[in-house]
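Record type: ASSEMBLY
Status: queued
Input:
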Amino acid sequence: MALIVQKYGGSSVADAESIKRVAKRIVDTRRAGHEVVVAVSAMGDTTDELLELAGQVAPMPAPRELDMLLSSGERISMALLAMAIHSMGFEARSFTGSQAGMITDATHGAARIVDVTPVRLREALDDGAIVIVAGFQGFNRDTRDITTLGRGGSDTTAVALAAALRADVCEIYSDVDGIFTADPRVVPRAQKLSSISSEEMLELAANGAKVLYIRAVEYARRHGVLIHARSTFSPDVGTWVVGPGQSLPEGEKGENMEEPIVAGVATDLSQAKITVIGVPDVPGKAADIFKIVAKSGANVDMIVQNASAAATGLADISFTLPKSDATAALKALAGEQSEVGFQSLVHDDQIGKLSIVGAGMRTHSGVAATLFEALSVARINIEMISTSEIRTSVVVRGDNLGEAARVVHSAYGLDGETEAVVYAGTGR
Amino acid sequence: MALIVQKYGGSSVADAESIKRVAKRIVDTRRAGHEVVVAVSAMGDTTDELLELAGQVAPMPAPRELDMLLSSGERISMALLAMAIHSMGFEARSFTGSQAGMITDATHGAARIVDVTPVRLREALDDGAIVIVAGFQGFNRDTRDITTLGRGGSDTTAVALAAALRADVCEIYSDVDGIFTADPRVVPRAQKLSSISSEEMLELAANGAKVLYIRAVEYARRHGVLIHARSTFSPDVGTWVVGPGQSLPEGEKGENMEEPIVAGVATDLSQAKITVIGVPDVPGKAADIFKIVAKSGANVDMIVQNASAAATGLADISFTLPKSDATAALKALAGEQSEVGFQSLVHDDQIGKLSIVGAGMRTHSGVAATLFEALSVARINIEMISTSEIRTSVVVRGDNLGEAARVVHSAYGLDGETEAVVYAGTGR
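Status: finished
Output:
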């Protein structure tokens, strides 16, 4: 008998039929003799609808009240799920974040988990019940107020419960079959990975892969939780996300247990590029620029400074950042133009970022050369390059990103023999 | 400075616009220098929609989970209302039933309030905040589970809060202007009462009047809470519901402070009549019949036994009960026909009940004669009669109920000079 934590996202419980299907899946797990704890998101677009309502009654909703509002979404889905399980003849009990002992700090809208005290969940499990917990929400002990964890909160709830209950595995269900070597909508010959290291998963998620939230993977890595990313709509094994020193459950094995040089290719169209032209090439100018950008609240990703032209004594500095941060950053920079002494600003929101991620890059030299070669053959121009220990990223024209991903995927021998099945949604 | 508890029903907070209107009303009360505590229902048809969803996932939803589900409705409306008030520059805090200290027994779906400990509400009021509380819901201390109070629960929440906080008045808002001498949709010349005694209000509510729930009026009577039933859409004074020994706030006076003989006429089309024909006229037979009916779960209202025909030794017994209880009662009786020895059953769901209610009936004789006379002149046949200390009810054909109400209303001198304005909804 194992203790299994399962997480179902909003699209998995979008309507009564979906809820019944998920209930059956949970009951099957219980029937197999396991203890089951489920973290569930709000139904379908409930959270967005509630946010819209909030916007209609108040232009800047009070954060405490916004959390009170949003937390009702999971309350609905979890109660319905518990009912559905109950009507299949199994005992099920639903718990709010506060009842589940999900203790957070008091940062409404983006609360951090500070403690998990799942006393009532353990009691319910000991009574033989299936436990359903509201994802995304917690409780602050000092203010006695409801909090929410922010984007990806339900994944984090599931992983945090798995850690606190010492679960054998945390299954994150979505409408995709697992983690792929690339986004199958971009690279049709992408293959499902049977396993991936958590550090590779973190790099993929940070660079555009959308199946798991970084925060949940980080939490799992820190607390030794084994994640199994799999599909709500299929009984097949998905992808195991394995932390340091962890091994797969008995009987399960990754097909690619030998460390791959490149685990996957991530693509990201969500970034923009800003180039600061004609920056005086004297020490401290780059620091000035990024202080200004940071103060605007923008999250800078890649930075490239070109070689200074000796004749002019001026350099250009380019950086990428989320498209949604670009306006604020441009405004902040323009406001300090005379102070910094640069000539002009160029804003480019037609870029695409491609990253290859693989733990093998640590020990194999020349891995990036294959990337550059493949893009060169395809006549795709590289505009920026950045690297980490296990990742190389390049910026290309957004129009070229799909083709770039396909040729790179192929160059690293990642292509499958058949095309992957692609679903409409993203499973969040 | 007074402490005012206000209750807004679902139709008063049906959408963002309504919520903003209610928020403004609350802010106006606060601005006038009063402390304000608001009990709010779920938006519009939310509760019915949640019930329908529940029915889709489970034919017989688990009661604990149904309460968890339904309690999310008020969570949404109260958070939105608090946000709207907040954005008008006033401090507002919303509280769930559990946070508000609404302690109930563990009867899911129809919990009884056992204690109210509004510590957090008092703190918030002392901080100068407007307090918004989820109506309809509570919390059981032993199971630590969420409960709901059942139909009319939000009215009861408001009155219970008013009692626990020693509020000066409990204002129950709806889309009607107050308590009328009759339902204005049935009797166009019905007049708004400026005040009514709580015992008369109880009789009217028990006999078909829909503005206030019996349970809330009972609670108010027992705990000395002054109720003011008024309209969300008008600043006018509504109707004061005055308990024994209570007086109206300074400056307010009922126009009809002299005890009226008849305060109002109530009409009710929700009942059916069952007649048990040919019951052996021996002691104990009526008891047998009503034991069977009670066991079927039916709630018997009026009972009439005709004089036994000496020749046959058989009597007929008629009784009324809610239409929804009739099938179960008929089935139960039919199952015991040979045991009881009656001849047949007649089911009649085309009846209407008319009641006149007035505390003056205690001290004035012959009040009912006016009722019988008026119906006789209108050639409306009376099928059953029952009386209490301050009420006389008659059963007539359902088709005749409207006309019966109009002639009786007129006969007691209750007609106003103009027709009352009638709204579409019922304000629940």
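Annotation: The interface with chain B takes residues 16, 19-20, 23, 50, 53-54, 56-62, 64-66, 68-69, 71-73, 75-76, 78-84, 86-87, 92-94, 99, 120, 144 of chain A (CB under 8 Å).
Annotation: The radius of gyration of chain A is 24 Å.
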